[in-house]
From TrEMBL, chain A:
The lineage of its organism: Bacteria, Pseudomonadati, Pseudomonadota, Alphaproteobacteria, Hyphomicrobiales. The PRC barrel domain binds ribosomal protein uS19. Residues 98-164 form the Ribosome maturation factor RimM PRC barrel domain. This is Ribosome maturation factor RimM. GO terms for biological process: ribosomal small subunit biogenesis; rRNA processing. GO terms for molecular function: ribosome binding. It comes from the Bacteria. Keywords: Chaperone, Cytoplasm, Ribosome biogenesis, rRNA processing. It comes from Nitrobacter vulgaris.
UniProtKB/TrEMBL annotation, chain B:
The keyword RNA-binding applies. This is Small ribosomal subunit protein uS19. NCBIfam families: rpsS_bact. InterPro entries: Ribosomal_uS19, Ribosomal_uS19_bac-type, Ribosomal_uS19_CS, Ribosomal_uS19_SF. HAMAP family: Ribosomal_uS19. Belongs to the universal ribosomal protein uS19 family. The lineage of its organism: Bacteria, Pseudomonadati, Pseudomonadota, Alphaproteobacteria, Hyphomicrobiales.
């Protein structure tokens, strides 16, 4: 079975004609209409988004074979998946989060650090989060210097741990934020 | 409430010293800071700060567009773990 990626979750029914709220997890919310039929988590049912329009923070979508409100209500909470190989190819140096998550992380000497738990972007560059066997997770900038090797086929990333300029932790008495 | 212009931007003094050390070293060191309230200055562009969010230090790679904002804006204290979907990460 090929790897699948969750791209949307069906929310509440919208109106009387079988429309649903659709919460997307894609970079461009409207791209869920371009992946063709989407499958449910167990793969038992195929649903295609035939029409979608943007609402406040979600889409209002029409799905194939869903024409009544009752049918739409039954789909509430269903997650929609697309096969990983249906996603378009990435540019040089660009990786899908879905490909990175789960890779084993090794240091330059070949010792295992942990596994990639998540990839974030809070507006200041991509961040790779490594879950270690013990202790808190490690957040590192996703740069060529820190992550020189990403081997998706081999299931591993190599991490060059950056140096840290530590400093004076704020005094407990200071009003610092 | 807007800060008075005559006061200038607020930056923790220790942070300026650490930035000087990082620039002088020429390496890609992460500067660990706790001062989320400090303003990002033009001399911080290109440096990587680890901004404390109450639990850990979140890496913040400073670029030109971030000048004038506060460090805390880029280190959320509450993280929502959603599905990755078709989101992509690019190595800088």
């Amino acid at each position: 079975m090929t790897a699948r990626v969750c791209v949307a979750r069906i929310g509440a029914a919208h109106g009387l004609r079988g429309e649903v709220r659709l919460w997307t997890f894609t970079e461009d919310p409207m791209s869920v209409t371009q992946y063709g039929p989407l499958s449910t988590k167990d793969g038992a049912r195929q649903l295609e988004v035939t029409h979608a329009r943007a609402a406040k923070d979600h889409l209002v979508a029409t799905l194939t074979d869903v024409t009544t409100r009752e049918e739409a209500e039954r789909l509430n909470g269903v997650e929609l998946y697309v096969a990983r190989d249906k996603l378009p190819d990435t540019d040089e140096g660009e990786f899908y989060h879905a490909d990175l998550i789960g890779l084993a992380a090794f240091d330059a000497a070949g010792a295992m650090i942990g596994t990639v738990a998540a990839v974030h972007n809070f507006g200041a560059g991509d961040i790779i989060e490594i879950a270690r066997a013990h202790g808190p997770t490690l957040m590192l900038p996703f740069t060529d210097a820190v992550v020189p090797t990403v081997d998706i086929a081999g299931g591993r990333v190599v991490i060059e741990m950056p140096g840290e300029i530590d400093g004076d932790e704020p005094d407990s008495g200071s009003p610092g934020i | 409430m807007v800060r008075s212009v005559w006061k200038g931007p607020f930056v923790e003094g220790s942070l300026l010293k650490k930035a000087d050390v990082a620039r002088a070293s020429g390496r890609h060191d992460v500067i660990k800071i706790w001062s989320r309230r400090s303003t990002i200055l033009p001399q911080f562009v290109g440096l990587v700060f680890g901004v404390y969010n109450g639990q850990k230090h979140v890496p913040v790679s400073v670029n030109e567009e971030m000048v004038g904002h506060k460090f805390g804006e880029f280190s959320p204290t509450r993280t929502f773990h959603g599905h990755s979907g078709d989101k992509k990460a690019k190595r800088a």
